[in-house]
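WARN no homologs supplied; continuing
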Amino acid sequence: EYQIDAVNEGFQKLLRYDGFILADVVGLGKTVIATMITKRFIMENGIDHSKILVVYPPAVEENWKSTFHDFGIDKYTKFISNGSLDKVLDPDNFNYWNADEYDMVLVDEAHNFRNHSTGAFQRLQEICKMPRIETGYIGGYKKKVMLITATPMNNTPMDIYHELLLFQDPRRCTIDGVTNLTSFFSPLDSEFKKLRRD
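OK structure emitted
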């Protein structure tokens, strides 16, 4: 029941905000929940119109591939380790679809992309923000992005800010009540730094 509720809520957030963070403690089935949401996306977007990219640390590669296989959606998916994103951006790499062909991007251990100044973050953001060249039954040219992590904040509130930038515009945010992510997070970060000093 917990997982079904999470799938329904996660799918609605995916459609409404073009992405969301699936954050829960270790062992509560985030991989299965994410896979169920992905399957629902593929069914509603159309199997002929859906291409999925799963980004993960190398240690969990087999878990993602076997779970997607068990749910029958591995044939709509390309899998890549979080250190090899340049391959997706390389138009001459025929092991992956072109970055603009993906309709949905799943990022496991998404807290690894909390630092916006790294090359890995910049490559992932380019992939996530690149418009879809073809839409299915779920319209819109923005990719859908699911960030999966047990620890969305490791150091400061700006960790979450940078993760949200993978599917939100900092100054034209679509999250309810937050039109400007930068102005929302700036006072939170200042208060956090003040608390750390005290």
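Residues 111 and 185 are 17 Å apart (CA to CA).
OK
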